[in-house]
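The data are quoted verbatim for completeness:
=====
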Amino acid sequence: MQITLDKGYQFGLGVFETIAVEQNTPLLLSWHLERLRHSMEKLDIRQNVEESYVLSWLSQHPAEHHALKIMASDENLILTMRPNPYTPGQLQTGFRLAYSRVYRNETSPLVRHKTLNYGDCILEKQRAGELGVDELIFCNSRGEICEGTTTNIFFASGGQIYTPPVSSGLLPGIMRRFIMENYPVKEQVLMKEDALEMEECFVTNSLMGVMPVNSLDKKTYSRGPAVQACFETYHTYVAAP
């Protein structure tokens, strides 16, 4: 693999997508490529990533439960494959969360895109392991809950599902979109105090799908009807021919 040292690989001005591949099928591929093209436009990256090209590449790299990563910068277009790290056992056990000590910068033009400027997420994901939790949750400079290091976060109470708005400073995830297109989710500014009043919580990303949350900091959550419904809807989609 040869990489040209352009703005993407010298300064992080590149973008990427991580796509779940199940039984040789890339899940929600059109949505991923739509987001990738939007981010490339915003960063003035003049690459052309067509669905046919991705499918052709995948036909030469068959996979059953893997993660496809597409990285694009001014002079590089790289596709790689690795095993999906999430297991059915983790989905049954659920996640424990804690708050990050790092703030999300809601004013940054990069925060709404999946860029190669990913250091905060990687370092805090490593720190989560050191703290004995599965994921850390970022708040912004105003104290609003934003997202996890690799996830979007949802809460539910009284049958209503809530998630922070993009304006709080977060990446609008593909699984976030999936949940919001299948359920009446209310985008609402959420503070730590609001999280204490919620009954259910779950996090999402493209590789794990829907992950139930058992606790966030000192608050514990039940695995109630909202979590179960979202979990089953996604797995019905994955199992569909």
The first helix runs from residue 7 to 11. The chain has a mean pLDDT of 96. The chain has two domains: 7-83, 88-239. The CA atoms of residues 25 and 181 lie 21 Å apart.
